[in-house]
Amino acid sequence: MLLDRKRSLDIGDWELNRAHWAVKDVDMIEFLEAQGLVAAGEAHEDDVELHELPAPVPIRILPTAFRIPDEQPDPLLVSVMMPFRPEFDGTLAAIRAASQEIGFTCRNASEVWDHDEIIQDIFSLIYRSKVVVCDFTTQNPNVFYEAGIAHTLGRHVIPITQNIDGLPFDLRHRRALAYSADAEGLAKLHADIRPRLQRLMDLG
Q1: Best label site of 27, 40, 114, 204, fewest CB within 10 Å?
Q2: What is the pLDDT of residue 112?
Q3: 68 lies in a domain?
Q4: CATH number of the domain bearing residue 186
Q5: Can you give the pLDDT at residue 181?
């Protein structure tokens, strides 16, 4: 029934083909009354009951591709996932500086060599981190894979990119920090990421 009135609700055709969140500038009570779906004065905002969400159920993770590290997660560790290329050195330096100013330790996977398998080093670093910064600039498949690990482990993921339009749809619900690789852009990245890190530090 509401599909016949989708234009009045500002619902585009494409929105019916995928799951997504959207905020519409529509007074729903006024709309329902205008369409004769409820009697005038029958629906009130005060009648809406707010229910507490149930407590989250812990997920037991038993990975087959990795070994769970013996070390416990470090509440002061930020890890950075990005391509292993020299052109990202300035990006890493900006993130490291912002992290250290707040009191975090910042590490990149290229700095870790504790296991024979590099993926085990990467998994262990993500597992021990409180925050994982992922640079999606080049749409590197390894970074997407690492972001998936971080999300699954419940880590705080901060996406950054030099190409905001290149982010896949499934990641656009996360507010990514856009930056450029020149000196001005890296200074902006430092200024933008610092308050995000500070908020996560304040969470404890």
Answers
A1: 204
A2: 82
A3: no
A4: 3.40.50.450
A5: 94
Among residues 163, 115, 171, the alpha carbon closest in space to that of 146 is found at 171
Domain presence at residue 197: yes
What is the tens place of the pLDDT at every residue in 63-95? 888 888 888 999 999 999 999 899 999 999 999
pTM across the whole model: 0.70
Distance CA 198, CA 194 (A): 6
CA-based nearest residue to 197, from 103, 126, 109:
103
CA atoms of 135 and 91, how far apart (whole Å): 9
Number of domains, the chain: 2
| Residues 99 and 108 sit within 8 Å (Cβ to Cβ) | no
Question: For residue range 132-150, what is the model confidence (pLDDT) as tens digits?
Answer: 999 999 999 999 999 999 9
Q: Residue 79 corresponds to which tokens in the numbers above? A: 């890890």
- The Cα–Cα gap between 179 and 5 comes to 41
Kindly provide the b/e burial profile for residues 166-184, where b requires at least 16 CB atoms within 10 angstroms of the residue's own CB: ebeeebeeeebbbbeeeee
82 plus 39 within the same structural domain: no
